[in-house]
Design goal:
Blueprint: H1 3-42, H2 45-50, H3 54-65, H4 70-98, H5 105-120, H6 127-147, H7 155-176, H8 183-209, H9 214-246, H10 262-282, H11 294-313, H12 327-342, H13 352-369, H14 375-384, H15 386-394, H16 403-426, H17 432-441, H18 449-473, H19 485-495, H20 502-517, H21 525-550, H22 555-575, H23 583-609, H24 620-653, H25 658-687, H26 692-703, H27 721-724, H28 727-746, H29 748-751, H30 755-793, H31 801-812
Length: 813
């Protein structure tokens, strides 16, 4: 079968899977909405009076059912209950104390704002619980203020709670019929897909490694890249569903405990695959020298076959699943591979990518066949921690509120209060819609405010217009007009994953149509639609205004600050590269680095979506290059840690002290760290400069003299050595490390290493050498991108990073 035919078949399978997924989600959402519609429109009149807020029921359905599993919905129902406690109980107490007759516009606004502040402030409360509580608060006080003198103080909040319960009930029923959509089943399916994906990628990587020409290798890598993107999406899906599995605990007794930490297991496979890709892209040309060794090539193909068989037998669980092979067979493949490396010549600089590829192959094989006796126990303990999640929800009140949480809570409080105030001034009868637009759309974190408001406005208008047109088409068949929702929900389910609408726009579009088609006795649909759109605009305008007033710092500014933090975190991790170091400390720093880079990505996404106004446009392309380079460096640091940990353990296993290895390698490692880390520290300071004009102004103010900034005389000016030295000088550091590593291997008889151990040591040292070389190259890429960024921000200035750093350093000292 040709490559084009394979691609067509793959695309067809992917399209069918996407349609099944979208249709399944749309049909369950439609079923839940139909249940709510039947209950609120066709139940006995006495029940209809109790369920007087069908809009809230639909909002709950969209929040709980869309793209959800049964575990998600059960968790959502629990959060809906907690949200009801937060929203309805204080509402009943407030109405009893104040009295609906005395609930003026000003009083209602103050009570809504104060209650919202209390609801949003605790960090442990789930987003769904907060949204439902805020929506209930809006409905309770706006309707009580409008016609409270005609309603009993207690019954009105009870009606709100009943409408919430109907939405939750319909959501659970829709996820159970015709069969439950279980997170555990979805995780098993995704794990099988990932194992197949990983097997195909590894085969392509090995094929590229053994390629006889650059053209063949590039074509193979191109096919592997598309599989890599698919594998990343699968891994993200498994991570998202991991928590949902714990809410399906009664069904988990039929499931192996190791399924509960599948994302960790799959991530353990993803890292070696990522390393193979890095190694292949670093190869200067094909065929690589190592691939010419027929004996090694044969063993490499045997190792590939062994890994493929292990993945196929894992049955969707990932590494550490039982294999049908005998332990002898597994050991023979690995031992022969290492013994062949023992006879190979220690790699030169050009051979480092090839040996790093072999290191990643061995790493993947080790992670697949390693035994983990404690995992079952750990997973079981993790299962039993599900009730703790519920306790943390109820324990959200006595929390320490930091300044960031307080600002978020204050923003939500003011946005909701102003939306209710101006909504009631515009129209008391329809004032709830302005508040609901804020309550349901609140993110409780930083987001691209203008983009989010734009998507919600577009979705609301489109959904409302669709609802009005459906009412017109089915004006003589009002009893079945609800059926027109099905094509709309299917359509919006595809929009949900698009850049044009996203989740916010899709949800607003569905709710907009639902509220028009699921209503009765609200007057003409067109008039109601106009009033709702107007009130929604009021709510969104209030939300944007408060965001700009309380958090005026632009996302582009925050992205620049976070870029500096990312450079600092990278530098800290590089400084910890040493033999026999505390592995736990290193891993903790690397975990922190991942969080810092994730935050940088969030700020970049927000900055890209925000309007420029009179500011300089955000340099998206440059920031994307920087984030990609920093992420690659973070991956390389993981491999360094893995190789050093393995090197230390292997040495200690044969009774070699760390000091024996350190005396060979510490000098080269220290020189590498000083050169790379100090250079990145320089770039960290440069990225914090607001503009070169302000820097020159500070220079001219007399704070420093010209002699202080003379190149090479400012403190730490030599820190820029990595970026000023030529390739030959930089290459000496790696050459020296390889020379000393070769001496370590040559002394294998003194260290009493067997052939297998010697092969493993060669792989570990080669991996460290490759990562050192790659980190130097990536550091130089960062320097180029930072220079481009500074030039973008200062188009009329001549940019010399070394000179800029000297000026900044002189000012600081």
């Amino acid at each position: 079968m040709s490559n084009n035919t394979c691609t067509m078949v793959t695309n067809e399978v992917r399209t069918r899977a996407m349609w099944r997924s979208r249709l399944g989600a749309a049909l369950r959402t439609t079923l839940a909405c139909t249940i709510v519609g039947c209950i609120t429109l066709y139940c006995p009149v006495a029940i209809q009076r109790t369920l007087s807020f069908p809009a809230l029921s639909y909002v709950v359905v969209i929040a709980l059912v869309t793209e959800a599993t049964l575990g998600d919905t059960v968790r959502g129902c629990w959060n809906a209950l907690y949200g009801t406690i937060q929203g309805v109980v204080p509402g009943m107490l407030s109405l009893w104390l104040i009295g609906p007759a005395r609930l003026s516009i000003a009083t209602a606004t103050l009570v809504v704002a104060a209650t919202a502040l209390v609801v949003v402030a605790p960090q442990s409360t789930h987003v769904i619980a907060k949204k439902i509580a805020l929506a209930q608060i809006v409905l309770i006080y706006t309707f009580s203020s409008f016609n409270g003198v005609h309603k009993a103080e207690v019954l009105h909040p009870v009606h709100v709670a009943a409408s919430t319960a109907v939405g939750a009930f319909a959501s659970v029923l829709a996820l159970l019929l015709p069969y439950p959509r279980l997170a555990s089943y979805e995780v098993r399916k995704k794990c099988r897909q990932f194992n197949k994906n990983a097997s195909e990628r590894m085969k392509l990587f090995v094929k590229a490694f053994c390629a006889e020409s650059n053209a063949t290798a590039n074509a193979t890598m191109s096919r592997a890249n598309s599989l890599t993107k698919k594998g990343t999406k699968i891994l993200q899906t498994v991570k998202l569903m991991q928590e949902s599995m714990q809410w399906e605990r009664p069904l988990s007794i039929f499931m192996k405990p190791r399924y509960l930490n599948s994302s960790d297991r799959l991530q353990a496979l993803e890292l070696p695959l990522k390393g193979m890709e890095i190694a292949l892209t670093s190869c200067p040309s094909f065929p690589v020298g190592v691939a010419g060794d027929e004996n090694l090539k044969t063993l490499l193909l045997g190792l590939e076959e062994h890994i493929t068989r292990a993945l196929s037998q894992a049955k969707g669980i990932g590494p550490s699943e039982s294999l049908t092979e005998s332990e002898t067979t597994k050991g023979d493949v690995s031992d022969n591979f290492l013994q062949t490396l023992h006879s190979a010549t220690f790699p030169s600089g050009n051979d480092l990518p090839s040996f790093f590829f072999l290191f990643c192959m061995k790493l993947m094989d080790g992670r697949l066949t390693a035994d983990h006796p404690q995992e079952s126990k750990g997973a079981t303990e993790k299962m039993s921690s599900a009730p703790v999640k519920k306790k943390s929800i109820l324990g959200g009140w006595p929390v320490k509120i930091n300044s960031e949480r307080f600002i978020i809570a204050l923003k939500c409080s003011l946005s909701l209060g102003l939306a209710v105030l101006f909504g009631m001034i515009y129209s008391k009868e329809f004032s709830c819609w302005s508040g609901l637009a804020v309550a349901v759309g609140m993110a409780f974190r930083r987001e691209a405010t203008f983009k989010s408001a734009n998507l919600k406005a577009q979705g609301t208008v489109l959904g409302t217009i669709y609802g009005v047109l459906s009412c017109f088409v089915f004006q003589r068949l009002s009893n079945i007009r609800f059926l027109s929702l099905l094509p709309w929900i299917i359509f919006t389910s595809f929009l949900r994953l698009s850049r044009m609408f996203g989740q916010a726009g899709s949800a607003s579009a569905i709710i907009g149509a639902l509220i028009i088609l699921g209503r009765k006795n609200y007057g003409p649909a067109s008039e109601f639609a106009i009033m709702r759109i107007s009130e929604t605009f009021i709510g969104l305008a209030c939300s944007i205004s408060v965001e700009l007033l309380l958090q005026p710092t632009r996302a582009s500014t925050l992205a620049k600050i976070q870029l500096s933090n990312s450079l600092s975190a990278i530098s800290e991790c590089i400084e910890l590269i040493t033999l026999c170091s505390s592995i736990e400390e290193v891993k903790e720093k690397e975990k922190k680095l991942r969080g810092v880079l994730r935050k940088l990505g969030n700020f970049m996404g927000e900055a890209e979506a925000e309007p420029n106004f009179w500011f300089l446009p955000f340099h998206t392309a440059c920031y994307n290059k920087l984030l990609g380079t920093l992420s690659k460096m973070a991956d390389l640091l993981l491999f360094v840690t893995q190789a050093m940990e393995s090197l230390t353990q292997d040495s200690q296993r044969v009774g070699i002290a760390c000091t024996d290895l350190k005396k060979y390698l510490d000098g080269d490692l220290d020189q590498f760290k000083n050169m790379v880390s100090s250079s990145i520290r320089c770039l960290e300071k440069i990225t914090l400069i607001k503009s070169l004009a302000k820097l020159e102004k500070a220079m001219n103010s007399g704070a420093i003299t010209d002699g202080d900034v003379e190149l090479g005389k400012a403190p730490n000016a030599n820190a820029f050595k990595l970026f000023t030295a030529d390739e030959e000088e930089i290459g000496k550091t790696i050459s020296s490390f390889l020379q000393h590593s070769r001496e370590v291997v040559d002394n294998s008889e003194a260290f009493e290493w067997d052939e297998k151990m010697k092969g493993q040591i060669i792989l570990n040292l080669s991996a460290i050498g490759f990562c050192m070389d790659a980190l130097i190259k990536q550091s130089k890429e960062i320097q180029k991108s930072v220079r481009e960024l500074v030039q973008w921000e200062n188009p009329s200035s001549q940019v010399n990073l070394c000179e800029i750093y000297c000026k900044v350093n002189a000012l600081c000292t």
